[in-house]
Design goal:
Layout: E1 3-4, H1 10-19, H2 26-36, H3 50-58, E2 61-62, E3 70-73, E4 79-86, E5 89-98, E6 101-105, E7 109-111, H4 120-123, E8 126-129, H5 132-140, E9 150-153, H6 163-174, E10 186-190, H7 196-203, E11 207-211, H8 217-223, H9 232-239, E12 250-256, H10 264-274, E13 279-285, H11 299-311, E14 316-318
Parallel strand pairs: 1-2, 6-9, 9-10, 10-11, 11-12, 12-13, 13-14
Antiparallel strand pairs: 3-4, 4-5, 5-6, 7-8
Helix pairs in contact: 1-2, 5-6, 10-11
Length: 338
């Protein structure tokens, strides 16, 4: 089995350099080729000795880049890419252009264990974790890679459930030896699984988005079974220990379901719950998924909900729905099962 260089951090590349008989600085040379120049073949690493490149090949090393195996284009400009996954399930990545922004929504797992009732990813179960190479490959291997302005871990999977690979990916994205992105360009979305959430807060400066979907514990439990293991009260207590007023942003993801979580009572309770957290609320239109009977809230209902939050001092916006015609909108990513 070939060994991938893609996804290794600087320490991992230093270990490979030592194994190959190279000096320590060769690790930064390899990192530059992998993460700044985007090579797909070891022979392209021309500042490594030819003998070292031959040694890497002969000992089973490869760059590890893989192109998408399928793609779909929406009428609104959104693109969805299918990448090779794990456990018999491929994974999806969504590119969203919007004026001067180009956001990539990347996956961290093939499937998901969290089993949120309204989410197609969770309905298909969990087939395996992606390693850091497979996650960063999504960023580097789409045609629009060089135009990206933002990355969100909001694709398939729960990032805090695959925390080691996600942390390594964020390190590659933000380190000077890696892609040297500002953490302000990266958002990690989570249901709040601890200790993964703690590690994200303490070891990265990426923005955090927490999926809440109801201010009432019993209602959240009815659509998100993880409420039992990771109550929103504990999640919010953890978040209150961190500063979200300056370098990083805290967002609350709130999918709206008609008659379930979209009335004035819910808006007022959500405002009380979030008071003092510096959280912003993203209101998300529900996109119908098989096996869940919920219906999307009307535009007027969403606007009233937003206005109630804003009047209470909570910044709230309605997220534009993108890519629904190619099953690329929030909650619709499923991947291909073989």
């Amino acid at each position: 089995m070939n060994k991938k260089l893609l996804g290794l951090d600087l320490g991992g590349l230093e270990a490979v350099a030592a194994e190959a008989g190279l000096r320590k600085f060769a690790a930064k040379q390899m990192a530059a080729w992998l993460y700044k120049r985007g090579v797909t073949d070891i022979d392209a690493m021309t500042d490594l000795p030819k003998s070292a490149r031959a040694w890497l090949r002969d000992n089973g090393y490869e760059v590890g880049r893989e192109a998408p195996i399928a793609e779909a284009r929406s009428k609104d400009g959104t693109a969805k890419y299918l990448f090779k996954g794990v456990g018999g399930r491929d994974v999806e990545t969504v590119y969203i252009p919007d004026r001067d922004r180009a956001t990539l929504c990347i996956s961290s797992q093939a499937g998901c264990k969290m089993n949120c009732r309204f989410c197609m990813t969770g309905q298909g179960g969990w087939q395996g974790d992606l390693d850091a190479g497979a996650i960063i490959n999504q960023v580097l291997s789409i045609p629009e890679s060089e135009s990206l302005t933002n990355i969100v871990f909001m694709g398939m999977g729960e990032p805090a459930d695959n925390i080691d690979a996600v942390l390594r990916t964020v390190d590659i994205l933000t380190s000077q030896w890696g892609m040297a992105w500002s953490p302000r360009r990266i958002t990690v979305s989570t249901i709040g699984k601890q200790p993964g959430l703690d590690l994200l807060l303490n070891r990265t400066q990426a923005h955090i988005a927490v999926s809440l979907h109801s201010p009432f514990a019993d209602e959240r439990l009815s659509i998100m079974p993880v409420q039992r293991a990771y109550p929103m009260a504990d999640i919010l207590a953890t978040l209150r220990q961190h500063d979200f007023a300056h370098q990083r942003r805290l967002s609350i993801e709130y999918t709206m379901f008609e008659g379930l979580n979209d009335d004035a009572r819910h808006a007022e309770a959500l405002a009380r719950l979030l008071r003092g957290t510096d959280a912003r609320v993203n209101l998300i239109r529900f996109h119908r998924t098989p096996g869940f009977e919920g219906r999307p809230s009307s535009q007027g209902t969403m606007e009233r909900f937003r206005d109630t939050l804003n009047a209470a001092g909570i910044i709230a916006t309605i997220r534009a729905s993108r890519g629904e015609d190619i099953m690329a909108a929030c909650g619709m990513l499923a991947g291909a099962k073989k």
